[in-house]
Design a protein that fits this description.
heterodimer; A: mainly beta; OB fold (Dihydrolipoamide Acetyltransferase, E2P); 5-stranded antiparallel beta sheet; 4-stranded mixed beta sheet; extended; B: alpha/beta; Peroxisomal Thiolase, Chain A, domain 1; two-stranded antiparallel sheet; 15 helices; 11 strands; globular
């Protein structure tokens, strides 16, 4: 095989092509209700399995273990705890971010699962830190995960 | 015995791993397949079935790349299947090859794994942005490095592990790779080099991570009858296991890979292995990140939870240690053409058990080895146990 070292990707003879396709993803049955609650009521909901009693956040239509349909919904509150976090310093192109951004997996009391989100209003973060969702103003909410602007430390 | 036929590996081949190779994915597949056939002393006409393992289409940039790569893998006019379980593909492909032969349907199966990540530019990371949940995660702007950083942080927190101890894995594997002619990032580095390298997403730094690569790897699998005809040194596939955990990675205890443990238990049960640390002579756990080698050693039950950093610090996982781990140089040293990287690990165990690993050979006449890969969205485990 070729042993020639190529340090510039474009040094080998090549053809430039694209694989373009745009997508429209439905939120799904559970997702519609979850994001409607966030948009209209600023509430974070979970769905409870009638068999094992586990409350899933984000809520889903079925329990993957019991294979039961989940119909009972519960409000898990705006407050959670940092389960793990990272401080991102470069973007997807490998370029330095203007400001490091904290991302965390936030777990809610009594619930299984959690939400990945940004941590704001602080530069300090630690595992076990109590945080609270900061919602965008109602007029700016679009039934998206970004209707939650970020999570901030609970004072 | 499991299945109708016992299955052996009788030949293996791995191409160079490089950031950017001139060869197309088809050509890389051809080189690896040809090398495996040559070592087996067989020709394409002896091959009754072909399995291709290759990861997301978005890397090569060809939708249905299983079909695109088929001729390079030697599949022309043959029963052919592509299998794909993300990063787990490289060890899953020989498992699929195993059932082709173990079922009694075929006496021979050529297994080829390929990845040409350099087609995707400016960086193959782009292909990873679309693996996340489109509703819950992509709007946040998820990046693959970040989720590994989240997992690594949880692992460190749970067992109070220092970054210095994790960095030792990168130092070891890159040094092991100095003896591997295929290696892309072989180097003599120090723990300080790792700790001083660029921070990507804390706690992940540049030298904690394997690179993106082009490459291919292949092996010839045959039934016991054929094995006896073609070689005096068959290496038997004595255990296979695979498992998927919750697709909501946010649901899992990130400090421990349950899915690897379940896959390992399945493979060990089949191989009759009761005490893995004692009975396994050489291991190739999946190491796309340095902490993952430790994580996976624990999932493979090669040590207790949280104990892998200690074994590493004590030199147990060095090539001349009691449990040589990633003697190939792993993904950290050799490179990470996803599916080909997992398959390279299977090829390495094959060569180690035959005493053909040259300067990489582990001492002590190893008889039993394990290779493992990990994939999908951090929840797929595939495990293979090989024996001489």
């Amino acid at each position: 095989m070729s042993l020639e070292k190529i340090t510039n990707l474009f040094d080998a003879r090549h053809w430039i092509g694209h694989m373009e396709a745009d997508y429209r993803y439905t939120l799904g049955i559970a997702g519609e209700r979850f994001f409607k609650e966030i948009k209209e009521n600023a509430r974070i909901m979970g769905a409870k399995c009638p068999k094992c009693g586990v409350v899933f956040v984000p809520p889903r239509l079925y329990c993957e273990k019991c294979f039961m349909k989940l119909e009972e919904w519960v409000d898990v509150g705006k407050r959670g705890e940092v389960y793990t976090y990272t401080i991102a310093t470069i973007d997807i192109d490998g370029k330095k971010l203007e400001k490091p951004q904290i991302y965390a997996l936030i777990k809610f009391e009594g619930a299984h699962g959690g939400l990945i989100h940004k941590i704001g209003e602080t530069e300090n973060v630690y595992i076990g830190m109590k945080v609270e969702a900061v919602f965008k103003p109602p007029s700016e909410r679009k039934a998206s995960i970004n209707d939650i602007a970020y999570f901030k430390p609970v004072k | 015995m499991f299945g109708k036929k016992r299955v052996a590996i009788v030949g293996a081949g791995v191409t160079l791993f490089r950031r950017n190779l001139k060869e197309t994915g088809k050509e890389l597949s051809f080189h690896a397949a040809k090398m495996a056939l040559e070592q087996a002393g067989m020709e394409l006409r002896d091959i009754q079935s072909v399995v291709m393992g290759t990861a997301p289409d978005a890397f090569d940039g060809v939708h249905m790349k299983g079909e695109y790569l088929a001729d390079g893998a030697g599949a022309y006019h043959k029963p052919y299947t592509r299998v794909f379980v993300g990063g787990g593909t490289g060890v899953f492909a020989p498992l699929a090859g195993w059932w082709h032969v173990a079922s009694g349907k075929f006496d021979t199966c050529l297994v080829v794994c390929e990845e040409k990540m350099s087609s995707c530019y400016p960086h193959p990371q782009y292909a990873f942005t679309t693996i996340f949940d489109p509703i819950l995660e992509r709007p946040i702007g998820m990046n693959l490095i970040w989720i590994f950083a989240l997992e690594m942080n949880r692992y460190m927190h749970k067992h109070n592990i220092k970054k210095e101890d994790i960095a030792l894995v990168s130092v070891k594997n890159k040094r092991n790779a100095l003896d591997n002619p295929i290696a892309q990032l072989a180097a003599n580095i120090t723990v300080e080099d790792v700790l001083n390298s660029e921070i990507m997403a804390w706690p992940v730094q540049r030298l904690d991570v394997s690179p993106t690569s082009d490459g291919a790897a292949a092996a010839v699998l045959v039934s016991e009858d054929i094995a006896k005809e073609v070689t005096d040194n068959p290496v038997w596939i004595d255990g296979v296991g695979w498992c998927i955990d919750s697709t909501y990675w946010t649901d899992r205890d990130l400090y421990y890979p349950d899915y690897v443990e379940y896959a390992a238990r399945m493979a060990y049960k089949m191989a009759g292995i009761k005490n893995p640390p004692k009975e396994i002579d050489v291991a190739e756990p999946y190491d796309p990140f340095d902490y993952k080698e430790l994580h996976h050693m624990e999932g493979l039950l090669l040590c207790k939870k949280g104990e892998a950093p200690k074994l590493t610090r004590e030199g147990v996982t060095q090539r001349d240690g009691d449990l040589p781990t990633c003697p190939s140089g792993g993904l950290l040293g050799c490179g990470n053409p996803i599916a080909a990287a997992g398959m390279m690990k299977v090829c390495e165990i094959f060569w180690q058990l035959r005493g053909e690993a040259g300067k990489r050979q582990v001492p002590g006449d190893p008889r039993t080895g394990v290779a493992q890969a990990w994939g999908d969205l951090m929840q797929y485990g595939s495990v293979i146990v090989l024996r001489r």
